[in-house]
Amino acid sequence: MLRDILKKELKRVFTDRRLVFSAFILPALSIFIVYTIMGSMLSNMMDDIEEHTSTVYIQNAPVQFQKVVDEKKLNMSITYIDMTEDTTSIKEQIKNGEVDMMVKFEDGFLDKVNNYKNLEIPPEVKTFYNPSEEYSRESRKRFIEIALNKYETQILTDRFGDINNVVAFDVDRNSDESIVVDEKKASGQGISMILPMLIAIILFSGAMGIGMDTIAGEKERGTMATLLLTPVKRETIALGKVIGLGIVAIVSAIVSFAAIIASMPFSSKMLTGGADMNLGALQFSTFQLIQLLIIMITLVGIYVGLICLLSVRARTVKEAGTYVTPVFMVVMIAAFSTMFGGGATELYHYAIPVYGSVSALKAALSFELTMNQFLVTAISSFVVSLILVRLITLTFNDEKVMLNA
Protein backbone atom coordinates (compact mmCIF):
# COMPACT_ATOMS: atom_id res chain seq x y z
CA MET A 1 0.00 0.00 0.00
CA LEU A 2 2.94 2.32 0.67
CA ARG A 3 3.93 1.96 -2.98
CA ASP A 4 0.40 2.89 -4.08
CA ILE A 5 0.35 6.00 -1.91
CA LEU A 6 3.82 6.98 -3.13
CA LYS A 7 2.83 6.32 -6.77
CA LYS A 8 -0.27 8.48 -6.33
CA GLU A 9 1.74 11.38 -4.88
CA LEU A 10 4.40 11.27 -7.59
CA LYS A 11 1.81 10.87 -10.36
CA ARG A 12 -0.06 13.91 -9.08
CA VAL A 13 3.09 16.02 -9.36
CA PHE A 14 4.80 14.69 -12.47
CA THR A 15 1.68 14.41 -14.65
CA ASP A 16 0.61 17.98 -14.00
CA ARG A 17 2.41 20.08 -16.64
CA ARG A 18 1.77 23.34 -14.84
CA LEU A 19 3.11 21.91 -11.58
CA VAL A 20 6.19 20.50 -13.30
CA PHE A 21 6.83 23.87 -14.95
CA SER A 22 6.32 25.90 -11.75
CA ALA A 23 8.15 23.46 -9.42
CA PHE A 24 11.11 22.39 -11.58
CA ILE A 25 11.57 24.26 -14.86
CA LEU A 26 10.72 27.81 -13.81
CA PRO A 27 13.01 27.89 -10.71
CA ALA A 28 15.90 26.40 -12.71
CA LEU A 29 15.44 28.88 -15.55
CA SER A 30 15.15 31.75 -13.09
CA ILE A 31 18.34 30.72 -11.28
CA PHE A 32 20.28 30.36 -14.55
CA ILE A 33 19.09 33.67 -15.98
CA VAL A 34 19.45 35.68 -12.77
CA TYR A 35 22.89 34.30 -11.86
CA THR A 36 24.15 34.70 -15.43
CA ILE A 37 22.97 38.30 -15.61
CA MET A 38 24.29 39.17 -12.12
CA GLY A 39 27.65 37.48 -12.80
CA SER A 40 28.04 39.27 -16.14
CA MET A 41 27.09 42.59 -14.57
CA LEU A 42 29.66 42.11 -11.79
CA SER A 43 32.40 41.26 -14.31
CA ASN A 44 31.47 44.28 -16.42
CA MET A 45 31.53 46.50 -13.33
CA MET A 46 35.02 45.28 -12.33
CA ASP A 47 36.30 45.73 -15.89
CA ASP A 48 34.80 49.22 -15.97
CA ILE A 49 36.58 50.17 -12.74
CA GLU A 50 39.92 48.94 -14.09
CA GLU A 51 39.49 50.72 -17.42
CA HIS A 52 38.20 53.98 -15.94
CA THR A 53 40.49 56.99 -16.58
CA SER A 54 40.68 58.73 -13.21
CA THR A 55 40.49 62.49 -12.83
CA VAL A 56 43.17 63.52 -10.35
CA TYR A 57 44.43 66.87 -9.04
CA ILE A 58 47.92 67.10 -7.55
CA GLN A 59 48.81 70.16 -5.48
CA ASN A 60 52.34 71.41 -4.94
CA ALA A 61 53.90 68.48 -6.81
CA PRO A 62 57.74 68.59 -6.99
CA VAL A 63 59.12 68.72 -10.54
CA GLN A 64 61.02 65.50 -9.86
CA PHE A 65 57.76 63.75 -9.01
CA GLN A 66 56.07 65.01 -12.18
CA LYS A 67 58.84 63.39 -14.21
CA VAL A 68 58.29 59.93 -12.70
CA VAL A 69 54.52 60.02 -13.12
CA ASP A 70 53.32 58.12 -16.17
CA GLU A 71 49.71 59.17 -16.70
CA LYS A 72 49.17 56.51 -19.37
CA LYS A 73 50.39 53.71 -17.09
CA LEU A 74 48.32 55.06 -14.20
CA ASN A 75 45.33 55.54 -16.53
CA MET A 76 44.81 58.97 -14.98
CA SER A 77 44.16 62.47 -16.24
CA ILE A 78 46.27 64.60 -13.90
CA THR A 79 45.98 68.35 -13.34
CA TYR A 80 48.76 70.03 -11.37
CA ILE A 81 47.80 73.01 -9.19
CA ASP A 82 49.77 75.46 -7.05
CA MET A 83 49.96 75.41 -3.28
CA THR A 84 48.06 78.71 -3.09
CA GLU A 85 45.06 77.48 -5.08
CA ASP A 86 41.80 77.03 -3.17
CA THR A 87 40.87 73.31 -3.19
CA THR A 88 37.42 73.62 -1.61
CA SER A 89 35.61 73.13 -4.93
CA ILE A 90 37.81 70.10 -5.80
CA LYS A 91 36.98 68.43 -2.49
CA GLU A 92 33.31 69.13 -3.14
CA GLN A 93 33.64 67.45 -6.58
CA ILE A 94 35.31 64.43 -4.95
CA LYS A 95 32.37 64.21 -2.56
CA ASN A 96 29.97 64.32 -5.54
CA GLY A 97 31.94 61.74 -7.53
CA GLU A 98 32.92 64.21 -10.28
CA VAL A 99 36.64 64.05 -9.39
CA ASP A 100 38.29 60.83 -8.21
CA MET A 101 41.12 62.08 -6.01
CA MET A 102 43.34 64.97 -4.96
CA VAL A 103 46.93 64.59 -3.77
CA LYS A 104 48.66 67.28 -1.75
CA PHE A 105 52.40 67.53 -1.10
CA GLU A 106 52.80 69.54 2.07
CA ASP A 107 54.36 73.00 2.01
CA GLY A 108 58.16 72.83 1.82
CA PHE A 109 58.08 69.15 0.90
CA LEU A 110 61.39 69.04 -0.94
CA ASP A 111 63.22 71.02 1.78
CA LYS A 112 62.03 68.56 4.39
CA VAL A 113 63.05 65.62 2.19
CA ASN A 114 66.53 67.08 1.77
CA ASN A 115 66.87 67.87 5.53
CA TYR A 116 65.66 64.47 6.62
CA LYS A 117 68.49 64.12 9.19
CA ASN A 118 67.14 67.05 11.22
CA LEU A 119 63.47 65.99 11.12
CA GLU A 120 61.60 63.94 13.71
CA ILE A 121 58.58 63.52 11.44
CA PRO A 122 58.99 62.88 7.69
CA PRO A 123 57.15 65.12 5.20
CA GLU A 124 53.64 64.11 4.28
CA VAL A 125 51.85 63.37 1.01
CA LYS A 126 48.14 63.56 1.75
CA THR A 127 45.42 62.00 -0.38
CA PHE A 128 41.79 63.10 -0.50
CA TYR A 129 39.36 60.52 -1.88
CA ASN A 130 35.81 59.25 -1.50
CA PRO A 131 35.65 55.70 -0.05
CA SER A 132 32.01 55.37 -1.12
CA GLU A 133 33.02 55.68 -4.80
CA GLU A 134 34.57 52.64 -6.53
CA TYR A 135 36.51 54.81 -9.00
CA SER A 136 37.92 56.94 -6.17
CA ARG A 137 39.04 53.93 -4.06
CA GLU A 138 40.70 52.27 -7.03
CA SER A 139 42.42 55.54 -8.04
CA ARG A 140 43.98 55.98 -4.61
CA LYS A 141 45.16 52.37 -4.50
CA ARG A 142 46.69 52.60 -8.00
CA PHE A 143 48.36 55.97 -7.30
CA ILE A 144 50.03 54.80 -4.07
CA GLU A 145 51.17 51.45 -5.45
CA ILE A 146 52.60 52.80 -8.70
CA ALA A 147 53.40 56.52 -8.50
CA LEU A 148 54.23 57.24 -4.85
CA ASN A 149 56.19 54.02 -4.28
CA LYS A 150 58.26 54.73 -7.39
CA TYR A 151 58.92 58.33 -6.27
CA GLU A 152 59.92 57.23 -2.77
CA THR A 153 62.33 54.68 -4.22
CA GLN A 154 63.91 57.40 -6.36
CA ILE A 155 64.33 59.73 -3.34
CA LEU A 156 65.98 56.96 -1.32
CA THR A 157 68.25 56.13 -4.25
CA ASP A 158 69.36 59.78 -4.51
CA ARG A 159 69.85 59.89 -0.74
CA PHE A 160 71.88 56.70 -0.28
CA GLY A 161 73.24 56.10 -3.76
CA ASP A 162 71.93 52.57 -4.00
CA ILE A 163 68.55 51.59 -2.65
CA ASN A 164 69.90 48.16 -1.86
CA ASN A 165 72.11 49.75 0.83
CA VAL A 166 69.11 50.83 2.91
CA VAL A 167 67.37 47.52 2.62
CA ALA A 168 68.48 44.82 5.02
CA PHE A 169 66.56 42.12 3.21
CA ASP A 170 63.79 41.56 0.68
CA VAL A 171 60.52 39.86 1.45
CA ASP A 172 59.12 37.82 -1.42
CA ARG A 173 61.27 39.26 -4.22
CA ASN A 174 59.46 36.92 -6.60
CA SER A 175 55.93 36.74 -5.25
CA ASP A 176 54.88 34.02 -7.71
CA GLU A 177 57.39 31.60 -6.17
CA SER A 178 56.08 32.40 -2.67
CA ILE A 179 52.57 31.19 -3.42
CA VAL A 180 52.22 27.59 -2.35
CA VAL A 181 48.60 26.68 -2.89
CA ASP A 182 46.49 23.68 -3.75
CA GLU A 183 44.55 24.94 -6.78
CA LYS A 184 41.75 22.48 -6.13
CA LYS A 185 41.38 23.51 -2.50
CA ALA A 186 41.66 27.23 -3.31
CA SER A 187 38.95 26.96 -5.97
CA GLY A 188 36.81 24.95 -3.57
CA GLN A 189 37.10 27.60 -0.87
CA GLY A 190 35.99 30.19 -3.40
CA ILE A 191 32.89 28.28 -4.42
CA SER A 192 32.09 27.27 -0.83
CA MET A 193 31.57 30.89 0.17
CA ILE A 194 28.04 31.23 -1.24
CA LEU A 195 27.04 27.89 -2.79
CA PRO A 196 26.22 26.01 0.49
CA MET A 197 23.90 28.85 1.48
CA LEU A 198 22.20 28.70 -1.92
CA ILE A 199 21.83 24.91 -1.78
CA ALA A 200 20.28 25.05 1.71
CA ILE A 201 17.73 27.67 0.67
CA ILE A 202 16.94 26.04 -2.69
CA LEU A 203 16.35 22.66 -1.03
CA PHE A 204 13.91 24.20 1.43
CA SER A 205 12.15 26.25 -1.26
CA GLY A 206 11.74 23.17 -3.46
CA ALA A 207 10.14 21.20 -0.61
CA MET A 208 8.02 24.09 0.63
CA GLY A 209 6.44 24.82 -2.76
CA ILE A 210 4.76 21.44 -3.04
CA GLY A 211 4.92 20.21 0.55
CA MET A 212 2.22 22.45 1.96
CA ASP A 213 -0.22 21.44 -0.79
CA THR A 214 0.52 17.74 -0.30
CA ILE A 215 -1.10 17.61 3.14
CA ALA A 216 -2.65 20.96 4.07
CA GLY A 217 -4.03 21.32 0.52
CA GLU A 218 -5.72 17.93 0.69
CA LYS A 219 -7.17 18.76 4.11
CA GLU A 220 -8.50 22.03 2.76
CA ARG A 221 -10.07 20.35 -0.31
CA GLY A 222 -11.52 17.53 1.81
CA THR A 223 -9.70 14.75 -0.08
CA MET A 224 -7.62 13.92 2.99
CA ALA A 225 -10.74 12.87 4.93
CA THR A 226 -11.70 10.52 2.10
CA LEU A 227 -8.22 9.03 2.06
CA LEU A 228 -8.28 8.49 5.84
CA LEU A 229 -11.52 6.51 5.56
CA THR A 230 -9.87 3.87 3.33
CA PRO A 231 -8.52 0.65 4.91
CA VAL A 232 -4.96 1.86 4.44
CA LYS A 233 -3.08 2.42 7.70
CA ARG A 234 -2.56 6.05 8.54
CA GLU A 235 1.14 5.47 9.17
CA THR A 236 1.37 4.18 5.59
CA ILE A 237 -0.41 7.26 4.24
CA ALA A 238 1.91 9.55 6.22
CA LEU A 239 5.04 7.72 5.06
CA GLY A 240 3.85 7.75 1.45
CA LYS A 241 3.36 11.49 1.53
CA VAL A 242 6.68 12.16 3.30
CA ILE A 243 8.70 9.94 0.94
CA GLY A 244 6.89 11.31 -2.11
CA LEU A 245 7.59 14.89 -1.07
CA GLY A 246 11.20 13.97 -0.35
CA ILE A 247 11.64 12.60 -3.90
CA VAL A 248 10.03 15.69 -5.41
CA ALA A 249 12.21 17.99 -3.29
CA ILE A 250 15.39 16.14 -4.30
CA VAL A 251 14.46 16.29 -8.01
CA SER A 252 13.73 20.00 -7.64
CA ALA A 253 17.06 20.52 -5.87
CA ILE A 254 19.00 18.58 -8.53
CA VAL A 255 17.44 20.65 -11.33
CA SER A 256 18.16 23.91 -9.49
CA PHE A 257 21.70 22.78 -8.65
CA ALA A 258 22.30 21.95 -12.32
CA ALA A 259 21.16 25.46 -13.20
CA ILE A 260 23.71 26.93 -10.77
CA ILE A 261 26.49 24.80 -12.26
CA ALA A 262 25.44 25.80 -15.80
CA SER A 263 25.62 29.49 -14.86
CA MET A 264 29.06 29.24 -13.20
CA PRO A 265 31.11 30.25 -16.28
CA PHE A 266 29.31 33.59 -16.04
CA SER A 267 28.61 33.85 -12.30
CA SER A 268 31.83 32.48 -10.73
CA LYS A 269 32.98 35.95 -9.64
CA MET A 270 29.64 36.62 -8.02
CA LEU A 271 29.68 33.26 -6.20
CA THR A 272 33.20 33.88 -4.90
CA GLY A 273 32.67 37.52 -3.93
CA GLY A 274 34.73 38.87 -6.84
CA ALA A 275 37.73 36.56 -6.49
CA ASP A 276 39.16 34.63 -9.44
CA MET A 277 38.41 30.92 -9.51
CA ASN A 278 39.84 28.08 -11.55
CA LEU A 279 36.77 25.97 -12.33
CA GLY A 280 38.94 23.35 -14.03
CA ALA A 281 40.62 22.59 -10.68
CA LEU A 282 37.32 21.54 -9.10
CA GLN A 283 37.54 17.78 -9.49
CA PHE A 284 35.55 15.82 -6.90
CA SER A 285 36.12 12.11 -6.46
CA THR A 286 33.21 9.69 -6.64
CA PHE A 287 33.30 9.27 -2.86
CA GLN A 288 33.21 13.05 -2.30
CA LEU A 289 30.22 13.37 -4.65
CA ILE A 290 28.43 10.60 -2.72
CA GLN A 291 29.16 12.47 0.53
CA LEU A 292 27.68 15.65 -0.94
CA LEU A 293 24.60 13.73 -2.12
CA ILE A 294 24.06 12.08 1.27
CA ILE A 295 24.40 15.39 3.12
CA MET A 296 21.82 16.98 0.80
CA ILE A 297 19.41 14.02 1.05
CA THR A 298 19.53 13.97 4.85
CA LEU A 299 19.06 17.76 4.89
CA VAL A 300 16.03 17.32 2.64
CA GLY A 301 14.77 14.75 5.15
CA ILE A 302 14.75 17.40 7.89
CA TYR A 303 13.10 19.96 5.63
CA VAL A 304 10.40 17.56 4.45
CA GLY A 305 9.75 16.40 8.01
CA LEU A 306 9.34 19.96 9.28
CA ILE A 307 7.11 21.07 6.38
CA CYS A 308 4.91 17.96 6.59
CA LEU A 309 4.57 18.21 10.38
CA LEU A 310 3.53 21.86 10.19
CA SER A 311 1.20 21.16 7.25
CA VAL A 312 -0.49 18.37 9.19
CA ARG A 313 -1.19 20.78 12.04
CA ALA A 314 -2.60 23.42 9.66
CA ARG A 315 -6.19 23.51 8.41
CA THR A 316 -5.45 25.29 5.13
CA VAL A 317 -2.51 25.94 2.82
CA LYS A 318 -2.51 29.58 3.92
CA GLU A 319 -2.27 28.57 7.58
CA ALA A 320 0.53 26.13 6.72
CA GLY A 321 2.38 28.97 5.02
CA THR A 322 2.09 31.01 8.20
CA TYR A 323 3.67 28.18 10.20
CA VAL A 324 6.41 27.38 7.66
CA THR A 325 7.60 30.97 7.07
CA PRO A 326 9.35 31.35 10.50
CA VAL A 327 11.07 28.01 9.93
CA PHE A 328 12.26 29.26 6.53
CA MET A 329 13.71 32.32 8.28
CA VAL A 330 15.61 30.08 10.72
CA VAL A 331 16.95 28.05 7.79
CA MET A 332 18.14 31.25 6.09
CA ILE A 333 19.86 32.45 9.27
CA ALA A 334 21.65 29.10 9.64
CA ALA A 335 22.66 29.19 5.96
CA PHE A 336 23.91 32.79 6.07
CA SER A 337 25.84 32.19 9.31
CA THR A 338 28.14 29.75 7.48
CA MET A 339 28.58 32.22 4.61
CA PHE A 340 29.98 35.01 6.78
CA GLY A 341 31.76 32.75 9.27
CA GLY A 342 33.90 29.72 8.89
CA GLY A 343 31.05 27.31 9.57
CA ALA A 344 31.19 24.67 12.28
CA THR A 345 34.47 24.59 14.20
CA GLU A 346 33.85 21.80 16.73
CA LEU A 347 32.74 18.28 15.88
CA TYR A 348 29.51 18.57 17.89
CA HIS A 349 28.51 21.63 15.80
CA TYR A 350 27.94 19.24 12.88
CA ALA A 351 25.20 17.57 14.91
CA ILE A 352 23.12 20.77 14.95
CA PRO A 353 20.24 20.31 12.48
CA VAL A 354 20.49 22.41 9.30
CA TYR A 355 23.52 24.43 10.55
CA GLY A 356 25.65 21.29 10.74
CA SER A 357 24.53 20.16 7.28
CA VAL A 358 25.29 23.54 5.68
CA SER A 359 28.68 23.59 7.43
CA ALA A 360 29.37 20.09 6.13
CA LEU A 361 28.45 21.20 2.59
CA LYS A 362 30.88 24.11 2.96
CA ALA A 363 33.64 21.80 4.17
CA ALA A 364 32.93 19.24 1.44
CA LEU A 365 33.02 21.85 -1.35
CA SER A 366 36.36 23.15 -0.05
CA PHE A 367 37.75 19.57 0.21
CA GLU A 368 38.13 19.82 4.01
CA LEU A 369 35.35 17.53 5.24
CA THR A 370 36.65 14.79 7.52
CA MET A 371 35.01 11.38 7.88
CA ASN A 372 33.99 12.12 11.50
CA GLN A 373 32.35 15.39 10.48
CA PHE A 374 30.51 13.64 7.65
CA LEU A 375 29.27 10.82 9.86
CA VAL A 376 28.12 13.17 12.65
CA THR A 377 26.23 15.30 10.12
CA ALA A 378 24.59 12.43 8.27
CA ILE A 379 23.63 10.43 11.38
CA SER A 380 22.27 13.41 13.34
CA SER A 381 20.21 14.59 10.35
CA PHE A 382 18.90 11.06 9.79
CA VAL A 383 17.90 10.74 13.46
CA VAL A 384 16.16 14.13 13.43
CA SER A 385 14.31 13.10 10.26
CA LEU A 386 13.14 9.86 11.92
CA ILE A 387 11.88 11.81 14.95
CA LEU A 388 9.95 14.18 12.68
CA VAL A 389 8.45 11.28 10.70
CA ARG A 390 7.38 9.64 13.96
CA LEU A 391 5.69 12.87 15.07
CA ILE A 392 3.91 13.10 11.69
CA THR A 393 2.58 9.55 11.90
CA LEU A 394 1.36 10.15 15.46
CA THR A 395 -0.40 13.31 14.31
CA PHE A 396 -2.09 11.39 11.47
CA ASN A 397 -3.80 9.29 14.19
CA ASP A 398 -5.20 12.40 15.87
CA GLU A 399 -8.79 12.68 14.59
CA LYS A 400 -9.20 16.20 15.92
CA VAL A 401 -6.21 17.46 13.95
CA MET A 402 -6.74 15.47 10.74
CA LEU A 403 -10.47 16.22 10.37
CA ASN A 404 -10.11 19.88 11.36
CA ALA A 405 -12.55 19.28 14.18
From TrEMBL:
Highest taxon of the lineage: Bacteria
GO cellular component: plasma membrane
UniProt keyword Membrane, yes or no: yes
One Pfam family matching this protein: ABC2_membrane_2
Keywords from the UniProt entry: Membrane, Transmembrane, Transmembrane helix
Membrane-crossing segments per the record: 20-38, 191-211, 242-266, 286-310, 322-341, 374-396
GO molecular function, one term: ABC-type transporter activity
PANTHER family per record: ABC TRANSPORTER PERMEASE (PTHR43471), ABC TRANSPORTER PERMEASE PROTEIN NATB (PTHR43471:SF3)
Protein name according to UniProt: ABC transporter permease
Record organism: Vallitalea guaymasensis
Lineage: Bacteria, Bacillati, Bacillota, Clostridia, Lachnospirales
